[in-house]
Automatic annotation (TrEMBL):
Family: Belongs to the SusD family.
Annotated SusD-like N-terminal domain residues: 111-231
A Pfam family this chain is assigned to: SusD-like_3
Protein known as: RagB/SusD family nutrient uptake outer membrane protein
Subcellular location: Cell outer membrane
Record flagged with keyword Transmembrane helix: yes
UniProtKB keywords: Cell outer membrane, Membrane, Signal, Transmembrane, Transmembrane helix
GO cellular component, one term: cell outer membrane
Amino acid sequence: MKYTNIYIINLFCFCLLLVFLTLFSCRKSLQTDLPIDKMTATAVFSTDEGATSAVLGIYSAMMPTLPYYSAGGTSIYGGLMSDELSLTSTLDPEEAEFDAAKLTPANGIVLSNFWNWAYKMIYGANASIEGITASEKLTPAVKARLLGEAKFIRAWNYFYLVNLFGDVPLVLSTAYKESATIPRSATAAVYDQILADLQEAKSLLPAAYAGTARIRPNRWAAVALLARVRLYRQAWAAAEAEATEVIGAGTYSLAPNPAATFLAGSNETLWALSPVESGFNTTEARYFIPTTSATTKPAYAVNPALAAAFESGDTRKGAWLGSKTVAAQTFYYPYKYKVYNLNLPVTETYTVLRYAEVLLVRAEARAQQDNLAGAKADLNAVRSRAALPPATATDKAALLAAIEKERRIEFFAEWAHRWFDLKRWGRLEPVMTAAKPGWQPYAALFPVPQAELLKNPSLTQNPGY
């Protein structure tokens, strides 16, 4: 989908962020390595207010009104790459590459919506880490919280980069000239940095949120992401322990019903991004929900196999799947976010981390350690909210299969959970071979953008591209 409208962050925010001298959302006009002004840095991070604004500016930048990876793009394009979503039109050849799982290194969405966008957020986090660390004028509590938030942001972005691209350049400073020629770091090294950042964030962030909205991550958000990372690295006991910390905090609970899950103020939310444009709720609603025109199909349709995978009586199907019939053909589409129209009150924030995932992380970690009763208790908590009966699995293999199915339904079209799950379970090839004719195993990773290979001779391409 060609993006022609331009999203320009206020010049004042540029200075506070220290990152974006010019930040455009035009998909093919982004550059990742931007110098910062040291005098500006010193000035911004000399007060609690300035330093806080700099970090808050990163959250604002993560929520454009176009589907960049932090604002719906991961759900859309991760869904297309997997067995969740299909295009109803192939007019955009770059989107068609995702739908066929046949990306090319020249794909502009891969370059601008993912690679460049993530590294812009990382640059912002690095600038904040450097400025906060160097400042001697911040109050200790503010300094600790902001440093924890910046570490969390950096870890979050690297988590998505490493799961999308595999080995990636590990940029940890604002020395843009040096980073321009940095090679890719091994996946294990990137994960080590993610864990180090999250452990530091866990120690620095308070349990209390800053304000009533949960748009700034707290200690439990860092611990929840730690639990996920431990699960991905198959550190089952550590994943269970981190998830248990979040659950034991007593701060969170499942929303009373699926329809309430993604509303602003939901107690299921651990971390959400708040819309920054007046009268705008979420990018996902704008892109997933079709217009009311009788001839307009949903752009991204839920695959029939996924729609059929909901169990009878599962209340998530009615709450999270929309449907529209066009020319006697019924299309399903993701309907987790429901506010399509503009100029309405903000009633939905963009949920990034939620309590249901923590429960299912612990369920899987427990099952892998043969604690089947404990695993079933966590799994059944999620099923109960969907008005489903308890799981009937009686052995480890059956229980892990039940958890896989539950994650498929609970997190469909949500932050590429399905795509990442299939990869880490070693299930990607059989599932995708059946779902997409001609699928090749190299498609498990995105290609390194050709434009980046040309700029940086130290980079190498992923196999198969």
